[in-house]
What does this fold into?
Amino acid sequence: MLYRTMPKNGDELSILGFGAMRLPMKEDGMIDEERATKQIRYAIDSGVNYVDTAWPYHMGQSEPFLSRALSDGYREKVKLATKLPTWMIESREDMDKFLNAQLEKLNTDHIDYYLIHSLMGESWSNVEKLGIIDFLDKAKADGRIINAGFSFHGAPDEFKPIVDAYDWDFCLIQYNFLDEKLQAGTEGLKYAASKDIGVIIMEPLRGGSLAGKVPHAVEDIWNEAPTKRTAAEWALRWVWNHPEVTVVLSGMNEEAHIEENLKIAGEALPDSLTENELELVGKAEKKYRELMKAGCTGCSYCMPCPVGVDIPVCFELYNSLNMFGDKDQTKFMYAARLSGVTGGEPGLASLCVQCGKCLEKCPQHLDIPTFLEYVVEDLEGPDLEQRIGMAKMFLKNKDI
It folds into this structure.
């Protein structure tokens, strides 16, 4: 296992972190605790020392499960991360209630790496007004949290103001070779690193999409390389090639995936990909772009929409559906991210009134209103309200 240093505190963290959002499941929909415990402990015994969870994962069961999985001395072997659910915070007092409940659920007296979950411009503004900075300062002072960070899911221009708003120890961003310009992107990665903020990466494989069923045209590109690697290895090595990255989270729930990830994490040094290999990744990225139905780069020049449509996220999920085909998962993510469940106003494609203002701003000259009609057709439909209800259940388990 390779390790990288967290800039502000000197922690030596395994470059591979264990994400507890996609644990193995039983047929009844509950976590397969025996199998998941073996997987987590095997990863820790193999050098992983960073474990990440959050309040809503597995319908609120991920945190209490981890308290059991990390018993028998395993808690002391890892840095444990969990997150404050911003969309459920209504007062300064709520922040302490959730943190204290999480400490109890996790059976620990401190959280090593505590994140403000799923920040965007509006959600940051909301929790800032409610006293999040005072909360973080006091929770760090009394030892309930050791390091303060945030996870980010906003537009590119919303990232730097959040970075600059507090003396963060670390942040968590989505990053892979398809998402260099989405959300925080490469610019955000480098900006955070320039401030000595440790950067942890989520979705390096886009929820498994870059490692599962790979389009034949992309597979042909990988096969051009003299050194043969799986699609997962190409994607992970590309992220780890960036020296600004400290830890990459993987939602590992198959033993074979754990073995593969551990092997790669023992070899993937920063700046280790050759120029030819980076060009190959660039070719794969370009091919994925060609396969996308909406040629959106996520630049957000079309924003803000006068009626609130979150155009970049609509197109991100529409393209994901067409490239990777996971309809149930994509439709759920559409409902969760665009219905307003996680805070802020709804950004559904069906809100579009065809005003055409976005057409004047798009550097790709996309027919945005027409593509939004396609999004409605493929990702909304009569079961949208049911999926919004499922997302509310998933995210708003307020058992504290």
